[in-house]
TrEMBL record:
Source species: Ursus americanus
Family: Belongs to the amino acid-polyamine-organocation (APC) superfamily. Cationic amino acid transporter (CAT) (TC 2.A.3.3) family.
Domain of life: Eukaryota
Protein name: Cationic amino acid transporter C-terminal domain-containing protein
InterPro entries linked: AA/rel_permease1, Cat_AA_permease, CAT_C
Region spans: Disordered: 606-629
Amino acid sequence: MLCQPVCRFGRKLVRRRPLGPREGAESRLARCLSTLDLVALGVGSTLGAGVYVLAGEVAKDKAGPAIIICFLVAALSSVLSGLCYAEFGARVPGSGSAYLYSYVTVGQLCAFITGWNLILSYVIGAASVARAWSSAFDDLIGNQVSLLLKGGFSLQVPHVLATHLDFFALGLVLLLTGLLVLGASESALVTKVFTGVNLLVLSFVILSGFMKGDLHHWQLTEQDYRLAMSASNDTSSLGPLGSGGFMPFGFEGILHGAATCFYAFIGFDCIATTGEEARNPQRSIPLSIIISLFICFLAYFGVSAALTLMMPYYQIHPGSPLPQAFLHVGWAPARYTVAAGTLCALSSSLLGTMFPMPRVIYAMADDGLLFRGLARIHPRTHTPIMATMVSGIFAAFMAFLFELSDLVDLMSIGTLLAYSLVVFSVLVLRYQPDENFGKNEKTEVEIAEIKPAPQAGSSESVPEAGPPQALASLCNPVNTTPTLKSGRIVYACALLLALLLTILGLLLAQWPRPVLFGDPAYTTGAVLLLLLITGLTFVIWRQPQNPAPLHFKVPALPVLPLLSIFVNVYLMMQMTPGTWARFGIWMLIGFSIYFGYGIRHSLEKESGQQPPASSFPAVDKNIPSAELA
């Protein structure tokens, strides 16, 4: 008696949304964004103020001149997730990004968790960037604003509220919220302007570094360090030398630096939320994701190379590395150019963070998982007006009141979790049959049932499938196209691999030295995990893939998606217990909304049949045929 209600409840949690548009449903958003608009949005969101600060922090204390290798490793790691987003952008041209991709693959509950964490990431990201913009502008005018506000509007709640009310950040977020309400094309135009100025400033920095730089700064020795100490009255400003040379902190320093640099590439996923506003989403979304990541890599690589060429890495000022570098080479006025670039980078980053936030909320509300009023579209501007206003006011309130430094890691957890689910979804979907393959499999079953059974007394016998035969069928499947059975095998193996990679990531993040340098128990456990992971990966590799044509497909399946999952999990496992506790509180709030409202108002009504997991539309009905030509 209890089993049936539990099964019905479980089926509700794994309801999947159909990949194609619902019957009678057409996009209510305006298709007005070109590939250039999407590239500007991705670069603007990703290439924020970190390019002016992060290189200094990593070069001084973690990697030295080898920071360029750190950015190369981080870029390659980010590309693993970026390729999976690109394939899904070609498969599913809709709003919602990772939320939508999870919904069509792993079901409703995972989709809600993904969307709920994306909302958290975008809100904290927007509020923190607004605060950073306010602080950068305040520095330019001699900290006059902060001194005034601390005197009249100071707050005395440490680690919760900010030291003072930030009216400037509040007004900036509300102003950009109004811009987003006006329309997607207007927002894209402003983003292109800020991103263009930012790239011009970065080009100036890179060229200046190569002109005024000295290759000797990549070959420093202990003698150079001693000369710098004797010439400096304040030796505390000099960082550790390491072993000198190009890699002063060794291979371990490169790994630590790459883990930090990985977060510099977070932000490109905002492109995936434009599926209902891009003119040709199945082509422009994959293309713009790849181009955006490449441009961002070139910028980070060039700025870090220029910085370490202009001055010794141990003399870099972490807070303002580029202005200090220009002072070092005698180009003091150039710091004003850097300041202008910083403000433009922060502006484009803020717009890039605020743009996808209402799109995710709109997609969840349109599916019934959040309150339906949030799915309202303005009839003239064709923007999700309620979702934009609510998310903008929430982000402005956070920037106005709260100390965000303790919440930034929450943003990373939400983003990395979304990346992992998208990668998992791509891995699973590539091996699933579409409707035609399902029909073929049914025909094979029916033919098998029609085959006459051996008569009584006949010497013919049917061998039973034992473990060797079952293992052989896993490694050498008969079918050359996916079947329901092969799809289930991949799904089960992918779930096991996600669990094993999580355990391996936890071991390497929390106990790296015992695992890598000698503790027999830890090392043996890690080796066994690697053997299991290798075996399951081989089983997935042997299964047939769906040959449906797409504008873009992730290469080297299943290896690249699994590497991406491992990188994301490894970074998540390095978060502090306090961060995970805050994450748990946010999830409790989300679950109360989902189980109190979303599960009962979802548009995906419970039925006996699930939509096929790979019935992708060949083209979007809302795209004019001339644009697809």
